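Worked Example 4.2. Consider the chain below.
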Amino acid sequence: MTAIPKPKNVDTPQGLAFAITAYVLWGFLPLYLKALSHMPPTEVLVHRVIWSVPVAGAVLIATGRTRDLRAVLTHPRSLILAFVTASLISVNWVIYIWAIGAEQTVEAALGYYINPLFSILLGAVLLGESLSRAQWISVLLAAVAVVILTVETGRLPMVALGLMLTWGIYAYFKKMLPIGPNQGFLLEVLILTPPALAYVVWLQSTGQGHLFSSLWNTILLVGCGVVTAVPLMFYANGAKLLRLSTIGILQYIAPTMIFLVAVLIFKEPFGGAKLVAFPLIWLALVIYTTSMYRQLRGKR
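Applying the procedure from the previous section yields the following structure tokens:
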């Protein structure tokens, strides 16, 4: 199997452009999903899968990287990992799609804010990585924020926790796939395509499907492939051309935009415990990012 070359630990203008484009596109994604909110989340999910295949496939063919994908198809352990990551990303997507339609976008933003802190905790628990004092403080502040939200609403913030868990565990297993991120993404959507196609056929045959129900619905559903695959491709290529510290800072663009879209455009309520919990999360992220930047500077 072709080895993936280790990226250079430098920032490049091209990498910066790729990464910022990806995060901005993700930040605007709720607007697109809101236009699909009259459809069941599972229907939107399967169309995201199906229409991502031609987009991701065209990119791999254009870049001549299909050999890596063919190689992994004969590697059982890699295929099992791909099934795991495909399952996790599909659950993550359906939670997010549901959250936008159910006016839970603020909570979705919270999930993606917490995710970096969950990832470092995951590294400590599963990989035995040691956490600095600042990182422990960040994790504890995030936990306090979740407790505050739980006490006020009388329930756990399930959307935030669901997005955090599925994306964090997805990223953990994704790193184990011995192929590049673009090839890995295509493999995941190919795995999900057979059940997705079967579900679409069933929806259409029973008169419940929205594909071809109107020109606008058809455009929106087919466009799911572009809005799903393109940001992932931009991110995958940008991450290889940037330092980890730069990616660590840029990753807050998307949840910040999602939060602003939720409050300013969707007019979702933002008060009570959220006014306490979100500043705690933001403080935790400042502490975490500052600590990470200092560690990387020390190593250099």
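Residues 2-7 have pLDDT under 50 and may be disordered. The CA atoms of residues 91 and 170 lie 10 Å apart. Compare this with Example 4.1 before moving on.
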